[in-house]
C-alpha cells in the first residue's frame, strides 16, 4: 500500500516501537495508521486495543474490522460484549479506563492501545476518562493517539512523555488530500465572499439544493443542530427526486432487504422515512432507533442517498464522506448555552466533504443569517486557528476509591501527573487539589473509607462510575436488596435518565413512588454533604420520567406500545434502557453484591435486554 508522507512518518516510528500522537484533518487518512498497528500486532501475536469515544463509533469499527479479522476481533462497550478475549479488542474509552483501574492484569497481552479522537480529552463531560486512561496506562503498552487538528499537540505529547518517562513522537499533517472550498448562502445568494447587506432576504433551502444539483455537488451531508429540524428539512425536499429510475430500483431493493434484516418493516418511524429514501433523501439523529440509523448509514455508504440531514454525531469518526457539506447554522448548544461553533468542531464536520479517491475537491456551504450571527464570528470559525485542547479533569468518586485502595493517602501525589496540573497555574492547581481533598473527606464522613481501608460500601461504590453516591447509599440502607426485578429496572432507568428542558413526567405507580421517595431523601443528604464540602457540580439526581415505560417493558409489552408512556424519542428510550443494563451489570459485578441481589439483577437484565434494546443482537445480525 502507498502511504502519504505523514502516514509513512508515523509507521516508521511504530516500527521502532515508539508511541505516536498524530494530528491531521478529518478525512486525511489517520485510520490507515491504526490499521497498520493492528496488522503488525496480529503478525507478532500481540494484542491491541482500539478505543473510541462513542458506542456508535465502536460498533462501526467492529463491523469494519470484522470482515477482514473474523474471530480475531472483539468488542466491549458496557452494553455489548462479543468475543471479549480477542487479540484485537474494540471498546469505549470508559471501559478501557475502568479496566486500567480495576483489572490491569487483564491487559497484559495487549501491547498497543489506539485512542481514536484523543482530542476528546477536552470534552467537559467525559474528557476526564481520556486523561485517567493515559495517566494510569500500564507501562508495557505503547500508544497511538489519533486527533483532529489541534495546535498544542506537542504539549499533549510532552505531558504523556513526562508521566511515562518514554519518548512520544508527534506527527502533524495540515493538508487534506482533498482540498475544501468554502461558500455561503446569505440573502438567498450563493457566494464565496462574505459581505454585509442592507435589507435581509430569507435563505431558501430550494435555492441551495438547486444550486448543488446544477453544480454536481451531491451527495451532501446537511448538518443541523436539532433532531426535529433535521426531520422537518428532509420533508421540505419531499417534492424532489434525486434518483434516476435505475437508482430508485436499487435503493428500494437495498432498503427493503435492510428493513427486513433488522425487523423494521412494520415500524412506524421506518415507514415514515421510506418515501423520502425512495427519492434519495433521509435524516439521521440520536432520537431514532439504532437499527434504523444503521440502515440509513448503509444506504449512504452505497452512494444511493443523495441528501442526508443529520446532527453532529454523524461527523464523529464515522466514515461517511460526501461531495458537499452544508451547515444549517454556525451556532449550537454547548452544555448550558448556545454559542458560535468552535473552529475544531466546524472542521470535524466540514471534513466530511470531499471523498478521497473519488473527488478532487470538497465543498462546504454555510447558511448565514446576518441577524443571528456576526460576520466576524463566521470568519473566525472558518478561517481561525483551531482551539487548543485543555484538560477537563474532574475525578469521580469511583476513581478516588480505586486509587485510595492502592495508594491510601499517597493518592494526592497522582494529581501532579495530570494534564490539568501540566497546563495550569498555581492557583488552579491548588483548587483542583482542594476538590480532591474535599471528595476524599466526604467519602470518609459517609463511611466509604474507615481506618485507612475501603468499607463494603466503598468496595461497592468503586464499581459504579458516575452514579456512585446515590446507588451506594441505597445499597448501604439495604434498599437495593428489597427491590424486585421491576424496582431494579425503574431505579436503574431513573439513575441514568437526564430529562430535556420542559420534559414532562407522567403519574407513577405506587411502587415507583416509593422508590422515588427513598431516592429523594437519600439525594438531599448527598447534596447537603457536597454543599458542606464545596463540591460542585453536584452528583446527578435520579429522574423518574421513564418509570412507566420501563415497568411496561418489563411486563413484556411491545416497544411500540411502551412509547405512549413517555415523550422521549424512541432512540433515547433504547439508549437509556441500554445504559440501565450497563449500570445493573456494574452493580452485579461489585464484589460485595449478594447472591440474592445478583440473581434478581440477572433476571432484570434478561428482560430489559431483549428485542430492539439488545445491542449485541444488532451487531450479530448486522
* Count of discrete domains: 4
β-sheet strand percentage: 5-15%
Count, helices: 26
User: How many strands, which pairing sense, and closed or not: the largest β-sheet?
Assistant: 8 strands, mixed
Quaternary structure classification: single chain
Q: At the fourth CATH level, what is the homologous superfamily of the largest domain? A: P-loop containing nucleotide triphosphate hydrolases
CATH class value of the largest domain: Alpha Beta
Alpha-carbon distance between the two ends: 29 Å
Gyration radius, rounded? 25 Å
CATH fold-type name of the largest domain: Rossmann fold
Question: Unreliable segments (pLDDT under 50, ≥5 consecutive)?
Answer: none
- Structural class, by secondary structure, is alpha/beta
The overall pLDDT, averaged over residues, is 93
Helical content band: 40-55%
List how many beta strands DSSP finds: 19
CATH architecture of the largest domain: 3-Layer(aba) Sandwich
Strand order of the largest sheet: 4-3-5-2-6-7-1-8
User: What would you call the shape?
Assistant: globular
Short description:
This protein has four domains: 5-172, 3-Layer(aba) Sandwich (Rossmann fold); 180-383, Rossmann fold, CATH 3.40.50; 393-452, no CATH class; 463-621, Sec63 N-terminal domain-like fold (Orthogonal Bundle), CATH 1.10.3380.30. By secondary structure, it is of the alpha/beta class. Helix 1 (5-15) runs parallel beside helix 2 (31-43), helix 4 packs parallel to helix 5 (127-135) and helix 20 (485-496) crosses helix 24 (570-589).
Amino acid at each position: 500500500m502507498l502511504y502519504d508522507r505523514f502516514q509513512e512518518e508515523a509507521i516508521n516510528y511504530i516500527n521502532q516501537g515508539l508511541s505516536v500522537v498524530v494530528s491531521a484533518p478529518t478525512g486525511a487518512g489517520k485510520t490507515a495508521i491504526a490499521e497498520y498497528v493492528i496488522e503488525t500486532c496480529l503478525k507478532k501475536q500481540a494484542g491491541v486495543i482500539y478505543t473510541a469515544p462513542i458506542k456508535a463509533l465502536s460498533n462501526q469499527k467492529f463491523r469494519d474490522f470484522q470482515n477482514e479479522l473474523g474471530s480475531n476481533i472483539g468488542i466491549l462497550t458496557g452494553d455489548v460484549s462479543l468475543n471479549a478475549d480477542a487479540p484485537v479488542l474494540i471498546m469505549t474509552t470508559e471501559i478501557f479506563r475502568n479496566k486500567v483501574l480495576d483489572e490491569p492484569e487483564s491487559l497484559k497481552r495487549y501491547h498497543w492501545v489506539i485512542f481514536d479522537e484523543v482530542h476528546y480529552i477536552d470534552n467537559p463531560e467525559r474528557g476526564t476518562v481520556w486523561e485517567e486512561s493515559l495517566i494510569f496506562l500500564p507501562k508495557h503498552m505503547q500508544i497511538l493517539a489519533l486527533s483532529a487538528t489541534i495546535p498544542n499537540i506537542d504539549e499533549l505529547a510532552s505531558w504523556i512523555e513526562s508521566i511515562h518517562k518514554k519518548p512520544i513522537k508527534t506527527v502533524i499533517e495540515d493538508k487534506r488530500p482533498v482540498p475544501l472550498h468554502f461558500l455561503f448562502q446569505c440573502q438567498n445568494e450563493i457566494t464565496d465572499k462574505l459581505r454585509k447587506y442592507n435589507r435581509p432576504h430569507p435563505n431558501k433551502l430550494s435555492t441551495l439544493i438547486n444550486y448543488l444539483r446544477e453544480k454536481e455537488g451531491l451527495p451532501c451531508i446537511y448538518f443541523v443542530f436539532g433532531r426535529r429540524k433535521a426531520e422537518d428539512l428532509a420533508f421540505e425536499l419531499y417534492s424532489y427526486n434525486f434518483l434516476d429510475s435505475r437508482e430508485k430500483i436499487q435503493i428500494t431493493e437495498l432498503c427493503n432487504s435492510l428493513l427486513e434484516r433488522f425487523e423494521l418493516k412494520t415500524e412506524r418511524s421506518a415507514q415514515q422515512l421510506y418515501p423520502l429514501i425512495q427519492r434519495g433523501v433521509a435524516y439521521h439523529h440520536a432520537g431514532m432507533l439504532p437499527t434504523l440509523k444503521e440502515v440509513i448509514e448503509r444506504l449512504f455508504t452505497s452512494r444511493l442517498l443523495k441528501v442526508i440531514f443529520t446532527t453532529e454525531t454523524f461527523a464523529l469518526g464515522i466514515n461517511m464522506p460526501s461531495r458537499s457539506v452544508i451547515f444549517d447554522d454556525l451556532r449550537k448548544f454547548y452544555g448550558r448555552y448556545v454559542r458560535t461553533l468552535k473552529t475544531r468542531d466546524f472542521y470535524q464536520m466540514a471534513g466530511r466533504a470531499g471523498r478521497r479517491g473519488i473527488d478532487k475537491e470538497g465543498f462546504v456551504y454555510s447558511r448565514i443569517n446576518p441577524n443571528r450571527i456576526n460576520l466576524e464570528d463566521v470568519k473566525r470559525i472558518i478561517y481561525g486557528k483551531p482551539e487548543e485542547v485543555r484538560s477537563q479533569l474532574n475525578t469521580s468518586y469511583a476513581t478516588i476509591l480505586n486509587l485510595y485502595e492502592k495508594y491510601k493517602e499517597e493518592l494526592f501525589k497522582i494529581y501532579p501527573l495530570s494534564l490539568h496540573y501540566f497546563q495550569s497555574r498555581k492557583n488552579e492547581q491548588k483548587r483542583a487539589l482542594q476538590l480532591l481533598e474535599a471528595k476524599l473527606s466526604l467519602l470518609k464522613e459517609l463511611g466509604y473509607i474507615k481506618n485507612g481501608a475501603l468499607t463494603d460500601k466503598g468496595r461497592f461504590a468503586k464499581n459504579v462510575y458516575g452514579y456512585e453516591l446515590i446507588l451506594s447509599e441505597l445499597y448501604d440502607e439495604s434498599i437495593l436488596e428489597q427491590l424486585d426485578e421491576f424496582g431494579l429496572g425503574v431505579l436503574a432507568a431513573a439513575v441514568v435518565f437526564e430529562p430535556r428542558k420542559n420534559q414532562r413526567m407522567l403519574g407513577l405507580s405506587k411502587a415507583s413512588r416509593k422508590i422515588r421517595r427513598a431516592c429523594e431523601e437519600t439525594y438531599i443528604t448527598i447534596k447537603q454533604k457536597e454543599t458542606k464540602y464545596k463540591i460542585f457540580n453536584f452528583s446527578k439526581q435520579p429522574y423518574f420520567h421513564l418509570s412507566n415505560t420501563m415497568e411496561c417493558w418489563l411486563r413484556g409489552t411491545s416497544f411500540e406500545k411502551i412509547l405512549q408512556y413517555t415523550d422521549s424519542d424512541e432512540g433515547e428510550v433504547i439508549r437509556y434502557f441500554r445504559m440501565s443494563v450497563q449500570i445493573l451489570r456494574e452493580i452485579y459485578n461489585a464484589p460485595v453484591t449478594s447472591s440474592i441481589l445478583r440473581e434478581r439483577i440477572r433476571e432484570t437484565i434478561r428482560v430489559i435486554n431483549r428485542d430492539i434494546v439488545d445491542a449485541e443482537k444488532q451487531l450479530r445480525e448486522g
